[in-house]
Amino acid sequence: MILRHLIHRASEIALFQPRNRASSDPPVMHGSRYGILAQVSIRNTYYNNSEGRCPDFRVYPTAATRLLMATLGLLLKDEGIGFSVLYDMNRAENLFNFLRHQAERGFQVPEVTGVWTRLSFALSLRNPYFINFTAIPVDTEPTKLNFYFSNQEAHVGPDGEVILNQGKWVVADERLPVIPTQYQVLVSDRVMAVQVNAISGVEVITEPRCSSHVHSFENNFDKADIGVSSPPLFCSEIVYLNFSLLPEDKYTIEKIGYDGKPVEEPRPVLYTAPYPTPLCFIDLLFTDPLIEPGAPPSPSRAEGIYPVRDLWGINPSVVPIDYHLDFRRRRTIWNYYIAPQPGSEKLVDLRIVDVTRRDQLDPLSGKITFNGPCCVRLANGSTAYRFISKEKIPLEEQSQLRFQLRGRRKGLAPTESVLIDRLPVASSQQVLPLTREAVCEALQASLCEGAESRPRCREMIARMCNFAVDQPRGSPPAAVYSEIYVYV
User: Fold this and answer.
1) Residues contacting 280, CB < 8 A, separation 6+
2) Residue 322's closest CA among 150, 152, 156, 162?
3) Confidence band for 296, pLDDT divided at 50, 70 and 90
């Protein structure tokens, strides 16, 4: 059943079309009145023209979550910029009883108590350029690494918002390796077994390193003839784990020694369906799993923020939580290539000037300056003048920056003029992760004859090739670049 749902996760559809949250009331269906149990609002500072609202994800509940939501009468609403989980407000007591029952049924081992019932969702990208303009590792491969978020890590931000990611912004450390249904673990002779634990600590898989192959032994030998009373043990350097009967979620893999203790640090992993390829995985627990039945509520607890409060008290309630998932825009080094049109006058004394109104910038920042120009040859053999920003510049949906190209055309006016009043800005569709060596070699290979003799060009070469006096040797320039071609 679970496998069948995993295969068809791509066919999951939202029950409601995206709409404006602020102007919408909870839906009413056949005497039921639905309210928000929890919602996830996705933000990215790249979208400076829409208050950070990020429309780049589709949400898919896992197979186990779809079954649980159907059991509890919960609904999923894809907001376009996040999603909401709705519950029947007239049947809230049914939800509370269900959650209490999970602890009473003994789903956990004796050492683990509490209610670990949760909703799990995979977030798949609908915008192929999201990684380009977002400050996450540019080499992130969703088939190998996914971001994992849980409301066990939720915390209140400086403006009172509830943040789902661990810090102020989503960072690389929140990624987990994605594993397939059949997973191999390399082990040494110090390992007795490999154990897999769920987030509650419950042991869900245990595979010994050594086992007896009874059938293959009996097929080849007569135990009575050789005087063997029991088959020998066969030990392997690889232990195979089968996750096919487990729900998609975060797990911890431990190698257990013969003394019953872990041989190495436990390894957290994420088991999730490969299609649609997710970038993020979210666990939303209904209530604080660490408050045991009969225990009074503890407002001083700082672990996580949950929608169901005081589950074991006299008056349990649902407090809707708007969890924020906050991404930050990427900053890149901008390379301008100023290419004169064929047959036009030669350009001299070029410079790029930042004429942005600083009082309109959010946040405020100093003026951006550029190294260059350097005369270079483009791939088609034409000449261009290259500039490179001295600092990383943010990519934005609508850039607040305004750069002018100033200089003069040789043989015309002897004074400087504005050649281009507003230069184009870097595109989010192209970012180039490059090593210092690759950047330096490409620049030196493209230089026009005699270009390195010009002071401003020498300054650029020194910076990009790491020979600047004020720059420590071995510290590379920015690893991610944006290239902008301008024809004058």
Assistant:
1) 57, 122, 123, 146, 147, 148, 149, 325
2) 162
3) low
Q: What is the DSSP letter of 342?
A: T
Confidence of residue 212 (pLDDT cuts 50, 70, 90): confident
432 within 8 A of 482, measured Cβ to Cβ: yes
Q: How far apart are CA 211 and CA 244, in angstroms?
A: 21
Phi, psi of 74 (to 5 degrees): -90, 150
Rounded CA-CA distance 51/206 in Å is 48
Specify the pLDDT at position 364.
57
CA distances from 348 to 406, 451, 459 (A): 9, 13, 18
User: What letter would DSSP give residue 134?
Assistant: B
Instruction: Supply angle C-alpha 181, 73, 104, rounded to 5.
Output: 70
The structure tokens listed for 289 are 């799993």
Residue with tokens 């064929």: 342
Distance CA 57, CA 130 (A): 9
Determine the average pLDDT of the residues in 246-269: 96
What are the tokens at 197?
């634990």
- The span from the CA of 423 to the CA of 370, in Å, is 13
Contact status, residue 329 vs residue 46, Cβ threshold 8 Å = yes
Q: Phi/psi of residue 446, each to 5°?
A: -100, -5
What is the DSSP-derived secondary structure letter of residue 447? B
Structure-block tokens of residue 285:
């627990």
Alpha carbon distance 360, 362 (integer Å): 7
- What percentage of the chain carries pLDDT values higher than 90? 66
How far apart (Å, rounded) are the C-alpha atoms in residues 263 and 91? Answer: 48
Backbone φ and ψ of 36, nearest 5°:
-80, 125
- Between β-strands 370-377 and 383-389, what pairing exists: parallel, antiparallel or unpaired? antiparallel
Strands (E), 219-292: 234-235, 238-242, 249-257, 267-271, 278-285
Catalogue the long-range contacts made by 183-187 (C-beta closer than 8 Å, 24 or more residues apart).
183/240, 183/241, 183/243, 183/269, 184/238, 184/239, 184/240, 184/241, 185/238, 185/239, 185/240, 185/241, 185/253, 185/255, 186/237, 186/238, 187/236, 187/237, 187/238, 187/239, 187/255
DSSP state of 477: -
Would you say residue 394 has pLDDT above 50?
Answer: yes
Name the 3-class secondary structure at 463.
helix
